[in-house]
């Protein structure tokens, strides 16, 4: 088995192979479809070939920037287009590609890798853990009344403040750079969010609203006319579906939700990518108005360098924790003393007794603050070495706002 990067000459082989692995026939670049593969970076695409040169497997990475807790922006390799031909499955092709890819990423100085999993059982063995979650909220219009926020007008509740902005409806094609700019402002402040490199917008790769798929876009502007949010939506058979709501603060999110919920001739509104603990649910006069469905894992995180990753994110409570980390796929094991002071962490190898023993995939799950270490202790994945260890870890890893990602790749 040979594993090598593609070149401009055989990117089409890569695209054909990944389509065959998924059982799809490659689409032609039709208006409305969007071409996800046009965003691929040729030198980051891997082909697995048999001894006689037949391509049987694919895997690639995108160069993203990931927002960590504390608004730290770091590079993250976004694994995508993983596929093995049905004729060659369960023979170790994916395992060989994952080993090759992780080794190459490390050699290139990367310390974090992320992905979206087609099936949840695939990637734990390679050290990836689910780190952000998503869901959709369906709101019947007859229950859509919003309650007045109780804290409105108090000095310490700016996020619930009044909305003096405006909403304008544009066609997707009329939006120019607005969506790209607003998304970029949003993702820099949202832990778990990924950058959408300019080429994605320019090439119209991916899913709406990046792709040219016909959509209406409700653009929210602040009182000075500066765009600070948008909702991309379509209406079919009485259901208004919002693909994504991007807002630079909670008041803008509510204004866009109110706009969507206020449509005539619509029986229900579906907000995609709204996590089940989103404040919007608390805004309805009827708490049961927002029906949560499709609650699922979204972004998986894999740490490639534990000290670098842990010192890169922001921290919100001082403390010390000794982590005994096992990385069976890469055959590594390390024990680290994590010391947090004034929002910054130091992380060094230690011989001290551990507070927690955990797999690298579990560290990926708790890294962004979206999964409490105590949950994984209770699930039997993380071992706590003394009664206070899980609470100590929860306190330390907790973040100022939950991570969320809605980018598809
Ligand atoms: C980030 C993304 O791109 S997600 C997209 C993933 N791709 C797909 O879902 C496309 C369809 N599926 C496929 O192409 C293949 O089945 C793949 C890529 C998921 C797996 O490729 P394979 O070459 O068969 O995997 P490989 O043989 O290396 O298996 C390694 C281990 O994972 C297990 N495994 C592989 N796929 C799955 C799965 N879908 N569910 C559960 N376990 C799995 C294998 O049983 C094996 O376990 P073992 O080591 O205990 O025997």
UniProtKB/TrEMBL annotation:
<dbReference type="Pfam" id="PF13530">
    <property type="entry name" value="SCP2_2"/>
</dbReference>
<protein>
    <submittedName>
        <fullName>Acetyltransferase</fullName>
    </submittedName>
</protein>
<dbReference type="InterPro" id="IPR000182">
    <property type="entry name" value="GNAT_dom"/>
</dbReference>
<keyword id="KW-0808">Transferase</keyword>
<dbReference type="InterPro" id="IPR022902">
    <property type="entry name" value="NAcTrfase_Eis"/>
</dbReference>
<dbReference type="GO" id="GO:0034069">
    <property type="term" value="F:aminoglycoside N-acetyltransferase activity"/>
</dbReference>
<feature type="domain" description="N-acetyltransferase">
    <location>
        <begin position="1"/>
        <end position="152"/>
    </location>
</feature>
<keyword id="KW-0012">Acyltransferase</keyword>
<dbReference type="Pfam" id="PF13527">
    <property type="entry name" value="Acetyltransf_9"/>
</dbReference>
<dbReference type="Pfam" id="PF17668">
    <property type="entry name" value="Acetyltransf_17"/>
</dbReference>
<comment type="subunit">
    <text>Homohexamer; trimer of dimers.</text>
</comment>
<dbReference type="GO" id="GO:0030649">
    <property type="term" value="P:aminoglycoside antibiotic catabolic process"/>
</dbReference>
<dbReference type="InterPro" id="IPR025559">
    <property type="entry name" value="Eis_dom"/>
</dbReference>
<dbReference type="InterPro" id="IPR051554">
    <property type="entry name" value="Acetyltransferase_Eis"/>
</dbReference>
<dbReference type="InterPro" id="IPR041380">
    <property type="entry name" value="Acetyltransf_17"/>
</dbReference>
<comment type="similarity">
    <text>Belongs to the acetyltransferase Eis family.</text>
</comment>
<feature type="active site" description="Proton acceptor; via carboxylate">
    <location>
        <position position="409"/>
    </location>
</feature>
<dbReference type="InterPro" id="IPR016181">
    <property type="entry name" value="Acyl_CoA_acyltransferase"/>
</dbReference>
<feature type="binding site">
    <location>
        <begin position="82"/>
        <end position="84"/>
    </location>
    <ligand>
        <name>acetyl-CoA</name>
    </ligand>
</feature>
<feature type="binding site">
    <location>
        <begin position="118"/>
        <end position="119"/>
    </location>
    <ligand>
        <name>acetyl-CoA</name>
    </ligand>
</feature>
<dbReference type="InterPro" id="IPR036527">
    <property type="entry name" value="SCP2_sterol-bd_dom_sf"/>
</dbReference>
<feature type="active site" description="Proton donor">
    <location>
        <position position="123"/>
    </location>
</feature>
<feature type="binding site">
    <location>
        <begin position="90"/>
        <end position="95"/>
    </location>
    <ligand>
        <name>acetyl-CoA</name>
    </ligand>
</feature>
